[in-house]
Design brief:
By secondary structure, this protein is mainly beta. It is built from two helices and 19 strands. The longest helix is centred in the first third of the chain and has 23 residues. The radius of gyration is 36 Å and the shape is globular.
Length: about 300
């Protein structure tokens, strides 16, 4: 009888401890990984640390005697050549129906082949400033022509070209707006008007000046910004660029003709609000643009 009781106790003990071990096991054990899984889970080798490099300027700074002169090796950072009647998507206009591209040329204040009484604008949403990031000068190249039948009497019926403009949008910082930028009105006659963001100067300009040639035929206007000066050139077909005006920007705005004669001077109202945009304010000019580019050197 004792033997039976002892045997029963042993059997019950074995069953009890066996259940305890089963309960300690994971009820759904993870299967062993296959050979493929083992390969996938192998840690990738840690790459060797690389030395962080600082970008170096591609060109040496321009020497002083070259500043203000258009450089052939300047780098193009913006281009609108209207190939395939395509306009650079960074270009901003004042109106949707104040311009059109015909045969790979941009017509301002013209729509569906007809001149429209809209003062449209063209401005790349591209800020440019000399003397920063290793840039010695910024060059604006505009190949175009412009004219208006009333230009002899009213020379502000023209393409009015702006640099150092505070914002690119069409409805703001126009030639007549306060502290808007430096604007020059050009047309087919050999007379220009200059504005520098003083509302009282509109429309006759802060001053006018005669230049060798007008812009009634296709030619190139080149404006070189060196940070403290603006140089204005005209390049006729088959000729070298010809300097016709220099604007000096310091505590004062001083303007000089090609011979170095001072033709205008005033306090620099743009000193605290220097802009960096290019803008064409087309004041009813019959303006056709073949190509526009911004270059840096």
């Amino acid at each position: 009888m004792k033997r039976f009781i002892i045997l029963s106790i042993v059997l019950i003990s074995l069953v009890f401890f066996g259940c305890q071990k089963d309960n300690e096991k994971d009820p759904s054990p993870t299967p062993s990984p296959t050979e493929t899984e083992k390969v996938d889970k192998t840690d990738a080798p840690t790459p060797e640390p690389t030395e962080e490099k600082t970008p170096e300027p591609t060109k040496e700074p321009l020497p002083g005697e070259q500043l203000g002169i258009p450089q052939d090796d300047a780098e193009i950072i913006y281009l609108d050549d209207f190939v395939d009647n395509y306009i650079n998507p960074e270009a901003l206009f004042r109106y949707n129906n104040g311009h059109e591209v015909v045969e790979e040329q941009l017509y301002l204040s013209t729509y569906k082949g007809v001149p429209v009484e809209l003062v449209d604008t063209y401005s790349p949403d591209y800020y440019c400033e000399a003397k920063v990031d290793g840039i010695s000068q910024v060059q604006f190249h505009l190949r175009f022509k412009t004219s208006h039948e009333r230009a002899e009497k009213d020379p502000w019926m023209a393409a009015i070209i702006g640099v150092r403009v505070y914002e690119p949008m069409g409805n703001s910082f126009k030639p007549a707006d306060e502290d808007s930028g430096i604007y020059v009105a050009v047309t087919q006659i050999n007379k220009i008007l200059v504005y520098h963001g003083v509302p009282g100067h509109w429309p006759r300009g802060a001053f006018s000046m005669e230049i060798p040639n007008g812009f009634g035929e296709m030619c190139e206007l080149v404006i070189v910004d060196t940070g403290d000066k603006l140089f204005y050139y005209q390049k006729l077909e088959g000729s070298e660029p010809t300097l016709f005006m220099i604007i000096e920007l310091s505590d004062q705005i001083k303007c000089f003709d090609a011979d170095g004669n001072e033709v205008y001077s005033a306090d620099n109202n743009l000193k605290e609000d220097k802009g960096g945009y290019f803008k064409i304010f087309n004041h009813f000019g019959r303006t056709v643009i073949d190509e526009f580019s911004i270059k840096v050197r």
